[in-house]
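Problem: given the chain below (419 residues), write out its structure.
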Amino acid sequence: MRLSNAPRLLLIAQANSYRIAPYLRAAKRMGLEAMIASRGEFSLISEVHDGLNVDLDNAETSLASILQEADRTPFAGILGSDDSTVELAAMAAQTLGLPHNPPQAARLSRRKDLARAHLALAGCPVPLHYLINLCKTLQPQMAGLPWPCVIKPLNMSASRGVIRADSEAEFITACQRIKTIVADSRDDFEASHVLVEDYIDGIEVAYEGYLHNGELTTLALFDKPDPLQGPYFEETIYVTPSQLDDTTQSTIKQRVAQACAAYGLSTGPVHAELRVDEHDAWILEVASRTIGGDCARILDNGNDFNLEELVISLATGKPVDTSPPDDARGVMMIPIREGGILRRVEGITAARKVTGVEKVDIIIREGNELIPLPEGNQYPGYIFARGDSPDEVVCALREAHSRLNFVVAPVIKMTLQKE
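Solution.
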């Protein structure tokens, strides 16, 4: 039974998504009643458990459940919280006549192989790329591959399973390792294939923006001061504003807009990753979602701007008002240097005292396992900083991180022997 007559927002999310809480807070501030559509039957989170229980692996039945719920009480907007839910959200919004991206465009933005092929056909600058079938002999498939190259799962986030290979031997070892990582994929094709692409030796940047009536607006361009050269590609620091020259920044936005047009994206958030060398700004990813992790907090600007409120406005057809911060800000996604069971984190108080540091947030609790890349897909926490310049912000983040010490214990795995 509904407790209010407020307009309803449907948020489609994985039951354990970190994006649920900020969207719920934003919806409440905007006077909306939010419902979560998820595999929430056994969730300990009340909003998920009491929401709409759907099988996110079955788009047809999930869509039917959403439409049935909308028949009872209409939704003012529908959005997906991450890559795995944006396509279903687009399908439901399209059927109900709500603001949406074409479902096929949302699908393209979340599958790396489909994205690369589509963008290449549209003339967008993407790395040379190939599909490899892990279930077939690798040697014949390696003919003509560029060295170095990067092997990637088709649909994973946070650089999980992404490995650089400089030779045939490294390529075979990497594929064997990735095959184990993707084995649990619910999609047979994604569990048996990987994307291989030419390694681009350049700097990497992240672009955050949004589309409204097909027009792309930039919210922030992030530099990544730590080199991402492999063999694994663990992201650490994002800092804005970018220190790239105006011409390069203009090229980056142009390439992102070109990719959005090629996909057919027209509304909602846009998060992109690009590599920039002396030749061009090469598209690595353009996703119809917000920046990952808790990094969205880097864009908060008091009561003037909140990224989730912007996304909800776009999904509900409300006026869009953006006032993102224009000072120097940065975030460090704390890397996992040593795997094991987390016992404690030392130095948090000292890290918080570093000049410029606004927040040190440890999100993985004691007793949980820390799993480094390429098998892992989580960061143990985030450090946020602000300063007079990007260089000052980066120094604060590095200093705060140097004061942290993650104490871990070995993982002991027991095997049962048959008598």
